[in-house]
Amino acid sequence: MEIIKTKIPGLLIIKPVVFEDDRGYFFESFNHEKFQEAGVDVRFVQDNESKSQKGVLRGLHFQNPPFAQGKLVRVMRGSVLDVAVDIRKGSPTYGQWESIVLSGENKMMYWVPAGMAHGFVTLEDDTIFFYKCTNTYNKESEGSIRWDDSDLGINWGIENPILSEKDKISPLFKDFKSEFKF
Prior knowledge:
Elements: E1 2-5, E2 12-15, E3 18-21, E4 24-27, H1 32-37, E5 46-52, E6 57-63, E7 71-77, E8 79-86, E9 88-89, E10 97-103, E11 109-112, E12 116-122, E13 127-133, E14 142-144, H2 165-168, E15 180-181
Parallel strand pairs: 9-15
Antiparallel strand pairs: 1-2, 2-11, 3-4, 5-13, 6-12, 6-14, 7-11, 7-13, 8-10, 8-12
């Protein structure tokens, strides 16, 4: 397992070692000891899975403290453009974003620490997205930021995604009040 740092502190790309043969493949999708060695000491308490058609955009979502969540995300089938935005006040990368293509084929993962707004757009039909969370979901703590906010300037590669009603009316980044500290 290779753990790669990004320009955003704490946001990591995980490249598993995949063993393939004529029977199929095997890889380690999480190893607590290796995460600890990379400075990430986590305990997962909830797993989530979603299935989406091509062009569905989910995000940019987060959970406010005390229900803030770190997430280890991956795609089991299909592909997504996955985006994380730093929303931690005082962070040198506050308001900056990173993206990566995650797919069932490349098997790469993203460690998205608490204090990030997170979202993805599906690039293929029947994409199955999986994530492990460090805290349970709490409706009163959920928050979101507009996916197409011009101040963030995220290049999603899509103009008219399929959105939930909630994502259509999310606040702009300039109107967002962060409860996260770096």
